[in-house]
Amino acid sequence: GKSPVGKSPYIYGVGVLPSFRGKGFGAEISRAVTMHCLDLGYEMSVIVPADEGLFDFYKNYAGYSDYFTVNEHKIKTEGRVSPEATVTGITPKEYGKLRERLLSDLNHLRFSRLACSYLNELCVSTGGGLYKLYQNGFSDMAVAAVEIGEKGLRVKELLCSPDQTEYLAIALLNAFGYHSGTVRTPGRQKRFGMSSIRIQGSGYFGFAFD
Question: Is the same domain home to 139 and 86?
């Protein structure tokens, strides 16, 4: 897939206990980890803030810049079905291959087979998983990473033609017996992840193992 740099590590699970917050530990940890990545030979590292307020924190105290964006859709079936769509479970390896094909025209992070396996474990543990979707009349397969959340279906990533988004989202809701859910797709609706180096334009990350 297209990428402005080569391999880049994803800094995951940075946190400070509530009783120790406000003392600069989070900033120190973030800077130290970023420097460690540089020492290991990586040109850039990536982080996904846990909430909107942390974007400014990582920008001001760790030198990160906004780069990765997503679209987030709230979908309701409202009695609709998607009879011309099929939903089939797939392996992490197949998911990774189809994902790269679908993202070939976008700057994005390519996930290793290990990362895809971990994502699959997270989704399966909630009752979801990794899926490929096919809609009659479209030549390409679509893929989706699905999680069952406390508030309903969460499609952490749906990769398809933009004009298929709603139809395939409804197909997933039908398949799992839900009437509403949240669906993430590539797009520029909201910021999602940050890069340790400033890169022009925007890129797609997708899921953050959240």
Answer: yes
User: Do 66 and 192 meet the contact criterion of CB atoms below 8 Å apart?
Assistant: no
Cα–Cα distance, 58 to 169 (Å, whole number): 33
- How many angstroms separate the Cα of 169 from the Cα of each of 66, 76, 95, 130, 148? 28, 9, 17, 14, 14
Higher pLDDT, 4 or 191: 191
**Is pLDDT above 90 for 12?**
no
Find, among 48, 51, 60, 62, the residue nearest to 12 by Cα: 48
**Measured between alpha carbons, how far is 52 from 30 in angstroms, rounded to an integer?**
17
Q: How many residues does the chain have?
A: 210
CATH number at residue 147: 3.40.630.30
| % of the chain beyond a pLDDT of 70 | 96
Same domain, 94 and 45: no
Distance CA 141, CA 87 (A): 10
Taking the whole predicted model, whether its pTM rises above 0.90 is answered as no
